[in-house]
Amino acid sequence: MTIKDARLSIIDQRLHAVSYARPADYLRFLQHVAHITTNDDAFAEYVEIKATRDIIVHSAGIANSIYTTKVGPKARVDAGVRPPMDADYFDHCVATVKRISVIVKEDIEQHFT
């Protein structure tokens, strides 16, 4: 294994660990490493979107205490309730991800170019 391979392996391990981190930790990582401003409401909305995905995959689509803890005031339903998944929510998800992509692009361009 070369030094380059070792570096890439460490980077890959770190990114993998961050991708499974709690949302607050993930956002702090983005701020610290990539200088992304994560205080825009779109990031809180993203946390809700990801938490909704998690309850679909891991909790049969029913919100639980993990969802409400992760999402906080952005929770769309209480634990024990199935959140609505309709066209309006899907449109909201798409708009949120687009907003985040603009923020990330602008912050990276400002800091790294």
Query: Can you tell me the number of structural domains?
Result: 1
Helix content: over 70%
Q: What composes the largest sheet?
A: none
Report low-confidence residues grouped into runs of 5 or more.
none
Rg, rounded, reads 16 Å
Overall 3D form: globular
**Helices and strands: which structural class?**
mainly alpha
| DSSP, total strands | 0
Number of helices: 5
H/E element string?
A: HHHHH
What features would you describe in this structure?
By secondary structure, the protein is mainly α. The protein has one domain (3-112). The protein has helices spanning 3-19, 23-34, 41-58, 65-71, 87-112. The longest helix is centred in the C-terminal third of the chain and has 26 residues, at 87-112. The mean pLDDT is 92.
Question: What's the helix and strand layout?
Answer:
Elements lengths: L2 H17 L3 H12 L6 H18 L6 H7 L15 H26 L1
Helix pairs in contact: 3-4, 3-5
Describe this structure in a few short sentences:
Helices cover 71% and strands 0% of the residues. It is built from five helices and no strands.
What are the salient characteristics of this protein?
single chain, 113 residues, mainly alpha, 5 helices
